[in-house]
Hints:
Elements: H1 2-5, H2 10-16, H3 21-41, H4 44-59, H5 64-81, H6 89-99, H7 105-122, H8 130-140, H9 146-165, H10 171-181, H11 187-201, H12 212-222, H13 228-247, H14 253-263, H15 269-286, H16 294-304, H17 310-325, H18 336-346, H19 352-368, H20 370-375, H21 377-386, H22 393-406, H23 410-426, H24 428-446, H25 448-460, H26 465-481, H27 486-492, H28 499-512, H29 516-525, H30 529-537, H31 546-559, H32 565-570, H33 578-590, H34 594-597, H35 608-620, H36 624-636, H37 645-652, H38 656-669, H39 682-721, H40 729-732
Amino acid sequence: MGDYMSIIPAAVLRNLADKLYEKRKNAALEVEWIVKQLAVAGEHEKINAVIHMLNVDFTYSPQANHRKGGLIGLAAVTVGLTKEAAQYLEQIVPPVLNSFLDQDSRVRYYACEALYNIAKVVRGDSIIFFNKIFDALCKLSADSDANVQSAAHLLDRLVKDIVTEGDQFSIEEFIPLLRERMNVLNPFVRQFLVGWITVLDSVPEIDMLGFLPEFLDGLFNMLSDSSHEIRQQADSALSEFLQEIKNSPNVDYGRMVEILVQRASSTDEFTRLTSITWINEFVRLGGDQLVPYYADILAAILPCISDKEEKIKIVSRETNEALRAIHADPSEGFDIGAILFIVKRQLASEWEATRVEALHWIATLLVRHRAEVISYLNDIIDPLLRAFSDPSDEVVLLVLEVHASIARDTTHFRRLVGLLLRNFQSNHLLLEKRGALIIRRLCVLLDAEHVYREFSASLEGEDDLDFASIMVQALNVILLTSSELSELRALLKKSLVHPAGKDLFISLYSSWCHSSVATISLCLLAQAYHHTNFVIQSLGEEDINEKFFIQLDKLIRLVETPVFAYLRLQLLEPGKFIWLLRALYGLLMLLPQMHHLRLSHYSSPNLTFCTSKLNMLGSRLPQQSATFKILQTRLKTVPSYALNSEQLKRALSGNPYSQILQIADEINKNHDGGNMYSAINFPSRMQQFQNMQQRHRMHMKMKLQSRHSTSSTLSQELRRSEGFSRPSPVQDISRPSSGSSWSTAGTS
């Protein structure tokens, strides 16, 4: 202490540690004058001794007033040294920086004041401590004491001035420090960081744009801050950087794209909008540089196409269209597999607009890179098939176009038909709700004849006979009702006179045999009336059931539509088309009349079960009476002038429905219909139909036997579980009266 007192008087040292600021200030002025004299005299050792004394005895003292005096004393030493102060900064600055962490807010305040005065003297020479100063200021910006914050703000402004006016600042060393602090949530720190980013970006010599990927995510994170001022400052900084990107020839888009993609899924609308806007600009500016990142970009914009915010939807759609318009090649890094992976994932989106755009992407890729897309077909086929069940018609129509594009070659066409059949088989609701739409659209996209031939070929050998019958019935209704299939119907009408019509008829007939009504419909369409009669007459009682009547009801009503106008006109010449007349009367005979359907007047015990079944059937078919009247009315309009008088006389007497068939038989003897059908081997077709129907009959018997067996087993198990024995007298009332008795295992 004695050595120091020989340099600085004891009174000055006492005042330097006084509790009154004015005394400390006056003492500091004394220290400044003494150091100035020492510097002029070149007494460097004494100067070092003074600095050491101020550090040890004052700035690191446990007494707050000593620490305050030490800080103001170090600032005074620096002012006294003026130009020579730079060589002593290693001894002066660290104690001041350490005081920023002091528990006493007044000490922290005087530390700011001291460093301000020191930096004002040495200016650019203080840059060597920039990172430490920046770290200290970052913490002080969020200080709990408002005075400390104010003092730190003044110091911050001075440091910014020093950095911007010199060339000693190292951006490379600063960026890691900035990056570490960008995710701090404190609003004061955020304002402090954005302020520094903006200042440094304004310096032409500092390339902040080149380091933008290092702190871009932090800026985007600030866009969702609760403070409007911080959001505004972050947005302003981002806007400035985006403008620089537009004007810069060299930009590292890749690293920034990764950040933007993540931010595009933010829960904050403003953040999503800003990130999508940036992506939009990148797609327009980046060109080939963005090719390797297309999948990432697509993953960001497809969900945003369905965003609830209209601005986001508009920008996302623009970006998507611009991205899809770019013709990239796999040789340039365009990863088709990655694109398809993203698209596949988005096909499961809950939003229709996103699913639609995902399908547009697959369609586009199929046009440009068909071979590559086909190589990934196994990865995307399942979601493409599930899309058939999509609630949106637009999605279904688009996925049909995709499937049609895939099915341009025979192998994939057959696979498509096979997969569709399996889908329909496992999901009957899909067939019911969307089957007609799917099949009609495929007929437009892939040629109706080709589609129907392939369906028929696949269904001919179908093991699931119930499904085969349902599918054929669906195909038949579509064939008879869809405007898209008018040319196919026109070709089938020529089946007896045209080779192409014959081939088509034979091709469809093989699977149409799964349904008797569908076979009858096909024969009527092909004008094979002679064969129609044989099909009708071959039907047995097990073939005529509820399902048969439902299908027949549809056919009778279709006869009254424009599709069968030619058939109705042919009835004007019953003599020429007697087999048509006979076929229609045959159908009429199969239709039940409601008041004739119930068989309660039959008393034979053997007919009891059949009677109840038919009565039940009649109760389920309230429309049959109307169907009967429709066909009956049509047949009444057949002119009688084409029949000879004897035939007409017989037709008008007795039962017209039975006698007209006899008349038809006689007229047929005078009309050689055999030549008319010589182009098609109808006996062979008839055998084919009968064989198929026999398979269906056997299948139905096996199903009934299985049901009865299951029912019997369940009944036995139930009796065992209830300890069933001979019924009580009360139960005997319900015994059958026809001689049957209860089966019992013993007496009770």
